[in-house]
Amino acid sequence: MxxxxxxxxxxTGAAAAEGNLHAQDSHGHDHQAVPSDPALRVKALESLLVxxxxxxxxxxxxxxxxxxxxxxxRNGARVVAxxxxxxxxxxxxxxxxxxxxxxxxxxxxxxxHMVVLENGPKVHNLVVCxxxxxxxWPVLGLPPVWYKSAAYRSRAVIxxxxxxxxxxxxxxxDVEVRVWDSTAELRYLVLPERPAGTANLSEDxxxxxxxxxxxxxxxxxxxxxxxxx
Amino acid sequence: xxGVHDMGGMQGMGPIRYEKNEPVFHAPWEGRVYAMNRALxxxxxxxxxxxxxDIELLPPADYLRMxxxxxxxxxxxxxxxxxxxxxxxxLESGKAAASAKAAPALTPEMARRIDRGxxxxxxxxxxxxxxxxxxxxARNIHxxxxxxxxxxxxxxxxxxARDHGVYAFPDTNAQYRGEKRQxxxxxxxxxRELWGENASPRDAVYIDMWDDYLERA
Lengths: 229, 217
Prior knowledge:
CATH architecture of the largest domain in chain A: Alpha-Beta Complex
Oligomer: heterodimer
Helix content of chain A: 40-55%
Mean pLDDT of chain B: 94
Largest sheet of chain B: 5 strands, antiparallel
Shape of chain A: globular
Radius of gyration of chain B: 20 Å
Helix content of chain B: 25-40%
Structural class of chain B: alpha+beta
Number of helices of chain B: 8
Shape of chain B: globular
CATH superfamily of the largest domain in chain B: Nitrile hydratase, beta subunit
Number of domains of chain A: 2
Distance between the termini of chain A: 25 Å
Radius of gyration of chain A: 19 Å
Strand order of the largest sheet of chain A: 1-4
CATH class of the largest domain in chain A: Alpha Beta
């Protein structure tokens, strides 16, 4: 077990002891406590596949490195910031998202058929995959656990306002909520509203405000947001 | 298949548990499982629809109990034998039988590039059966194999919002009975049509649907 995993489980246990399982900073997680057994079985399968010449461990390392360090919500944030500062780019993005996203160098599996959904004062878009966990990998990376959880997948379509409230987003009744269930090979990215008070920010500074959660639709971008999620 | 994976509209699954500063993988083995799936996928012996169906076929109690990558690994262990990458004996013993060594389909160079997996949706030879704006009903069908028509939409009436082009049909593709390529649309269903009068009158759910899931309304 890695140090990170051990720390994580310890944090989860501590939160449970406090009766605080779904606290924002150390949630209970959909994962069972993973015994060492899967780690050993995974290692055994990899050794077997390598021995048979079916898998190159260096290729596995490269894939893992890509998703841990190169592909993630920062890519999507750059797309959003560009759309905010460049009206012609925004137009191309809304008309045909995949080529516009590729202009910034982001294209790969699960991003071939992208649709960008623009949020506005009267329309709010929210993305889910009720049947599995479809997610736009090239612009957001691999999905967080909550996006893949039964709680989110089941409720996002029947109670989207309740779901967003759990994320701290309360939408007025006169805003139309559009939920997009990714049942096919289309992948959806929400273009959040540019927050007030950001007229003087550069494209880089704007990108730093854009969160993963806002690009899924469970949050808004504020002049004070930013950071990892 | 009316499986437990078809979760839209279910209740009682608890609160959404949010982890701040979540790592991409929670343990190294999760990354290895993800990458092994991709590396063997590069042999193109299975397609994405069959892959999804393998996960759906996990016993329902396991599906609900397991974490995402535990599900991926359970399906991978089944798949490596079914698609004859390894024998059951090799999987159980962890030792390769003496045989000719294969060449990996996924090289480190390809892994860094991450190739595109789904072909173009532009195909003028396949005519759409529906047009944007048209009223449609999702068919009330209950296929026993893989399908991407969620239960909560069946029998409900909506409107074609947008034609996304031509894609392989999951229900046949998952069983290797042909791609049966056809148009996919975003279909707008009013929240009240899906969930009744307590739903917000303004809200809507957009679901991606293939021609074969739809009929005129």
